[in-house]
Amino acid sequence: MGNVSFRKLSPGVSRPEPVNSNGSSHSVLLTFPAKAEYIALGRLALTGLLRTRAIGPEVIADLKLALTEACSNSIRHAYAGREGTVEIRYELDGRLLRVEVADEGGGFDPALLGADPRDIDEGGLGIAIIRALTDELDVGPREGQRGSRLRFVKQLS
Fold first, then answer.
1. Whole-number pLDDT of residue 37
2. Which CATH class is domain 5-155?
3. What predicted TM-score, i.e. pTM, was given to this entire model?
4. Is the pLDDT reported for residue 128 higher than 60?
5. Residues 6+ apart with CB under 8 A from 110
6. How far apart are CA 137 and CA 113, in angstroms?
7. How far is CA 4 from CA 18, 26, 33, in A?
8. Eight-class DSSP state of 142
9. What is the tens place of the pLDDT at every residue in 92-104?
10. From edge to edge, which strands make up the β-sheet containing 136-141?
11. What is the distance between the alpha carbons of residues 20 and 25, in angstroms, rounded to a whole number?
12. For 7-54, how does the pLDDT look when each residue is reduced to its tens digit (9 = 90+)?
């Protein structure tokens, strides 16, 4: 069985600190083994974070789908059956949600981002789905580390 960790990120602190119930931070870091069965933990953490705001169930469902697609891409493409971890960073700042999904895999082909959805095979539709459900999407290499990261932003009106 793999390790799963939740961390609270304090404002201005780049190193995670353990989560405590008294913290006022709206940033959470979740790390789990790169296995599909752990994606549900990421969805639950997102739902719990969004319940601190008056967010409609349709928006929550859309964001859970976007997160599922992002995590699935990391698991499927970064590790191709070998062991690894997926890291999700959630930031809720007022009415703005930022989510970053990162892995330590071999990287991502940014050319897929500009592709016409009609030309993408079944495995590439996740990016198009995330783009349709969120306000901003950015995919690229991890900063200062091996692997890829996918960030999406949603304005929670």
1. 96
2. alpha beta
3. 0.80
4. yes
5. 139, 140
6. 9
7. 13, 19, 7
8. P
9. 998 999 999 999 9
10. 17-18, 5-8, 27-33, 85-93, 96-103, 148-155, 136-141
11. 10
12. 655 444 444 443 333 333 479 999 999 999 999 999 999 999 999 899
Closest by CA to 84, choosing from 52, 131, 36, is: 36
Residue 137: CB partners within 8 Å, gap ≥ 6? 113, 127, 130, 131, 150, 151, 152, 153
Do 63 and 48 touch, CB atoms closer than 8 A?
no
Give CA–CA dist 21/37, Å, rounded: 27
**In sequence order, what are the beta bridge partners of 154?**
97
> Is residue 83 packed enough to be buried (19+ CB in 10 Å), middle (13-18) or exposed (0-12)?
exposed
As given in the structure block, the two tokens for residue 134 are: 């969120």
CA-angle at 86, arms to 82 and 18, nearest 5°: 135
pLDDT surpasses 80 at 152: yes
DSSP H helices, the chain, are 39-50, 57-73, 79, 125-133
Note the helical H segments in 2-112.
39-50, 57-73, 79
At 148 the three-state DSSP class reads: strand
Q: Label residues 128-141 b or e (16+ Cβ within 10 Å = b).
A: bbbbebbeebebee
